[in-house]
Design goal:
By secondary structure, the protein is α/β, with parallel strands linked by helices. Helices cover about 35% and strands about 20% of the residues. The protein contains 8 helices and 10 strands. Strands 1, 2, 3, 4, 5, 6, 7, 8, 9 and 10 form a 10-stranded mixed sheet that branches.
Length: about 190
């Protein structure tokens, strides 16, 4: 069994997987499984009031988990896949634990072949949060992963060195950028003109 098959089985069993993206390494679990989501928060030591995003392999698959307006769909078509997290209204399949009780969830479609292969195989939305203990630096290489994260993960998918620039988090409905990262200027222009 190869690493991708092991990672797929781990996600389906509610376990954690470290996976590469075009930004930094991510910590993945079944984003629709409250217990798996709890394991992500515990492994990161993350404050439960701080929501976690989800990753999917395509925009059409994102629409299974969110209700996107026409403008949000146009934005997704323009920027996904890519280093962008889009906040959209969540559907019932997204547990409240993931979003800290909020009605919106961040959606990622990574522009990284290894991540997309993993997400396609997983068969569900996967948590999209950096694979680090909260407050520590994000990992760009497997060797930089915090020991606590490696210990908590059932599988670590090594995709070599990542680019390291975090995704830009944007709420298209309000036109607000919550975190500036990759493509922030292009996103600002789109928001102002579309």
């Amino acid at each position: 069994m190869n690493d991708l098959e092991r990672a797929t089985e781990a996600i389906q069993a509610g376990e954690l997987v470290v996976y590469p993206t075009e930004t930094v390494y991510g910590l993945g679990a079944d984003a629709t499984d409250s217990d798996a989501v709890d394991r992500v928060f515990a492994a990161k030591g993350r404050d439960r009031s701080n929501p976690v995003s989800l990753a999917v392999p395509s925009v059409p698959s994102a629409l299974e988990y969110v209700r996107a307006s026409d403008r949000e769909r146009r934005f997704m078509a323009a920027f996904l896949p890519g280093p962008v997290t889009v906040l959209c209204r969540r559907r019932e399949a997204v547990p409240t634990e993931l979003v800290a009780g909020r009605d919106r969830v961040g959606v990622r479609v990574p522009d990284h072949q290894g991540a997309l292969r993993f997400l396609e195989r997983a068969g569900t939305a996967v948590t999209a949060t950096s694979a680090n203990v909260s407050g520590r630096d994000s990992a760009r290489r497997v060797e930089e992963l915090d020991p606590e994260i490696v210990e908590a993960a059932a599988v670590v998918l090594d995709g070599g060195e990542t680019e390291g620039t975090e995704s830009t988090v944007v709420d298209v409905s309000s036109g607000k950028i919550h975190r500036r990262g990759a493509l922030a200027e292009e996103i600002e222009t789109w928001l102002a003109t579309s």
